[in-house]
Amino acid sequence: MPVTLSAFGLSADEAAELRLEIGFSESVAEIKSQTQPVFEIMHRLPDIDLRDVNLYFFAFCLTGHSGEAQISRLQMRGTHASLGYVFPMTFFRGEAAIDGDWPKRYARVAFHKLIDLSNIANFAPEATLHGFRDRCIFPDEIFPDHLSIVVAGLKNLNDAGIGIEQLKLMLLAQKITILDRYERDPNFYSSDKFSMSVSLAAVSPVIGEDIGVIFQLLRQSDTDTSEVGRFLKLYQLIEYSIEKVYAWSIKALLGMDISSWRLKKKLATITADRSRLGILAAHCLQPTVNRVAFDALAVACRELLGDLGEELEDGGSWHHLLYNVRNIVVHDQIKLIRTPNDFLPALNDALRDACFELTSTLTEPDLSTIWSLPQNEAAIEGTGTD
């Protein structure tokens, strides 16, 4: 069926007049105009059965790894259940070997999902009918060759309990950035090393209704060219988390049989950001949390604070140190400007990793049980320097 999109620099009216459409045969996709061939897009993939392409999720992405052989398998952390693959745009030239039938099937689906007029309109800004007429080209000649594509089985995602918005956030955590539109000079994060297997951590149910907003927030932090701006965006996820802690704390207090004096003391404690950060660190992260990420954040905070001449406590925990940094960024940027340093970018990198740990391990604890234990208040609240 002809599609009237403004691909190839054509207006919608011009495209409608040409009645552009795509037909597939063997290893070729043919771009036609009123049944007359215009040009062809080809691949050199191994011959294998083509699955129903409607049963697969497809998206353009950025990975920083665009070599022909840099294909990544996506799997769930812990279970190793397969979800799909990431293919570089240059992959379809067929010079990279593919081991196993499933990668070959996903690659065939990827080609069929890729060659679409709406994709050409949105992700091939330099494409013109005049430039390609009567030629047979590879996908990376029409689409920018720094792009990659993600293909995931919808059944695989459903079996893992993952929605599309969750998948986008899980991929961003691994520095694979889903694109909704073409960006000529995109700012994004990529892994230092290419990996043939990418393990994705499930998103915490606690943030379920806010996944889309959190994805946008973290994506915006990646594109912010100001390190102060980047810090403030990332810290919003910390604020979001301790707001959850506040709600859980109130809920716990309502269910506890405690004296009015102790209730008053608890309420005073949980209204302080420092205390809620302590509760978050001590009680609101799943056992699977990667503590290395928070240890690295503590080191980065200590380096920045030390360079700014701040007094530091021995053994200060990540949440105390981070809150001190937050106070300087929010209330004393003159100090940051007056003391040029190279520590804030590294701190933001560590904070980014910690934020993604929160998106996967944030959990609601039973604070009423924890607070009922006969322990001293500092340990109970998680406000000690541990």
Automatic annotation (TrEMBL):
Source organism, top-level taxon: Bacteria
Protein name: Uncharacterized protein
Source species of the chain: Gluconacetobacter takamatsuzukensis
Organism ancestry: Bacteria, Pseudomonadati, Pseudomonadota, Alphaproteobacteria, Acetobacterales
